[in-house]
Specification:
Elements lengths: L18 H24 L2 E9 L13 E9 L9 H8 L6 H24 L3 H21 L6 H17 L12
Antiparallel strand pairs: 1-2
Length: 181
C-alpha cells in the first residue's frame, strides 16, 4: 500500500475524485435530454398513406400495375398535437381539468419538451431544465390519474424519480456551458 492507495478506517480513499458521480450524471443527463427532445419532436409527427408499385424479384415494378398502400411518417409544424386526440376527448370530459388548462398544456408541451431536452443536452441551465422536466412529468401523471389511465403512471413516476436523482447529482456536472442554473 502506498500514499495513492491509502484508505481511511471506513475503507474509502482519502482523495476521492468523484468522477464516477460526474459520469453517472452525464449518462443520466444524456438519457433524460434525448428522451425529452425526441418526445417533443414526436408531437410534430404524423403518418400519411402513399401508394407504391409492387416490385418483382428483379426490383422492377409489377407489370400488372399492382399497387400497395404504405404508411410513411413525416414531420411538420401543421401536424403538431401536444396531447393525442383520443386523450383530448377524455380530458375534455374531466370536471377537475379546466378547458383553458388543457388548451395551454396542449400548446406548450412539445416546445417545452424540446427546449428542456436541448438545454439539458448542452448543459445550459441544467438544474432549471431538469426542474421543468420534472414538472412536465408530474403534470402528465396527474392527467393520467384524472382520466383513470393507470398504464403510464408508473412509467412517468420513474421519470420523475430519475429527474430527482439527476438534480441530486447536478453538483457533479462537469460538462456544462452554464453551471449556475
Amino acid at each position: 500500500m502506498n500514499e495513492s492507495t491509502s484508505q481511511n478506517q471506513n475503507g474509502s480513499c482519502e482523495h476521492p475524485c468523484h468522477c464516477d458521480y460526474s459520469l453517472a450524471f452525464l449518462l443520466l443527463r444524456g438519457w433524460l435530454g434525448l428522451r425529452a427532445l425526441l418526445a417533443g419532436v414526436e408531437k410534430f409527427g404524423a403518418y400519411k398513406t402513399i401508394q407504391q408499385p409492387i416490385l418483382d424479384a428483379s426490383g422492377q415494378p409489377d407489370p400488372g400495375g399492382a399497387m400497395i398502400d404504405m404508411k410513411v411518417k413525416f414531420y411538420s409544424l401543421g401536424n403538431y398535437s401536444g396531447v393525442p386526440l383520443g386523450l383530448k376527448t377524455k380530458f375534455a370530459n374531466e370536471a377537475l381539468l379546466p378547458g383553458f388548462a388543457l388548451t395551454t398544456f396542449d400548446k406548450l408541451l412539445g416546445p417545452a419538451l424540446i427546449a428542456s431536452g436541448v438545454m439539458l443536452l448542452l448543459g445550459l441551465g441544467t438544474r432549471a431544465s431538469l426542474f421543468v422536466q420534472g414538472l412536465i412529468y408530474i403534470m402528465l401523471s396527474v392527467g393520467l390519474i384524472l382520466i383513470n389511465q393507470p398504464d403510464g403512471i408508473a412509467y412517468l413516476g420513474i421519470h420523475v424519480g430519475l429527474v430527482a436523482f439527476a438534480l441530486m447529482l447536478a453538483k457533479h456536472n462537469k460538462l456544462a456551458l452554464l453551471k449556475k442554473w
